[in-house]
Predict the structure.
Amino acid sequence: MSSAEQLEVTVVLPCLNEAETLAICVNKALKSLAALGVRGEVVVSDNGSTDGSQQIAIDNGARLVHAPIRGYGGALMAGIAAAHGRYVIMADCDDSYDLSNLGPFIEKLREGHDVVMGNRFKGGIAPGAMPPLHRYLGNPVLSWIGRNLFRLKGVGDFHCGIRGFNRDRIIDLGLCMPGMEFASELVVRASLAGYSIVEVPTTLQPDGRSRPPHLRTWRDGWRHLRFLLVFAPRRTLIQPGLVLFVLGLAATVALAIGPVKVGNVGFDINALAYACLAALVGAQLVLFGAFAEVYGRFERIVHESRSAVWSRWLRLEVCAAIGLLLILGGTIGTVGALSAWGSADFGSLDPQGTIRIVLPSATAIAMGVTVLCAGLFTSLLTLRANAALVHLPQEQQAQDDMVGAS
């Protein structure tokens, strides 16, 4: 058995011009592993430093890895891929995280948990360690959104930079975000895959560097938020869209018959126009969410069963049938409105009457075209999967032939 196979823990430190604090972080991590009696290593994943960080890492006992992809996530992916440990603990190398106390992370990993998150709010944040905007707005809000979108009730610090995980389990997720949103991708995709995620308290000290941090508050905050929303299409698109569609459809049907009065408030033609708009926008939100889930099947973002449901309903044949029926219904309504106009010698009509037919008819045609195009687009999304299924028996037969020949 080689020494690489015997390692239990690899501490991965992404590095970009960290000469001021890198030696301190490497030594803290190595001393912590030695004090715990853990067979491990420290890997510095360099992202193109120009301040001599590479030599500092080597001189202080770390193994240096050159990350070909620029960015925080790119450096971490290279470090994780090169790690020899069964478990990986990642942390920034700005001397803000407590690398001298890795015991709680290793203990939880040994218990069988797949991901162990640090929680700075439970462990303690030293004065000046975190800007007030991050401490009281950015982190709490983004953590709250992450917990509710992905049902991570036990994760209070969604963006803590120190965390441990089972290396092979994380590699199986196929993480790909090269920037700061890698941290969100790791916990989100681990949650969607049903991994066991727990938290341990950790501390945060002021950044030990004299230069500004790589993190950019608004840019990286928006990238994290965008990532969270995109990875939860069911909660951000499908569910709100379904509610909007049902309410819009019900209001359209009611107002197409005649004015509706609720208490002292009356709803008529103006409300009908917005009801039609709500139904159309709601349907589009549902469809876009369905596209995201179908696409997520190929990126292993959503469960196979969830995307399979949408793949069946959004087949070209089904969408074509529904779309053509909607277009036909809208066309019949349009013909009816034209007939009413013709009976008046194409002169002026009472808008209170014909508009109740025209608006729903136009909405039905627009929705029919939308559904028809949705079927075409879903067919493109699933083309790769269908082609794989068609060729799989042929490939299997070829393999069987080779085995028989041998």
In short: Residues 233-393 form one domain.
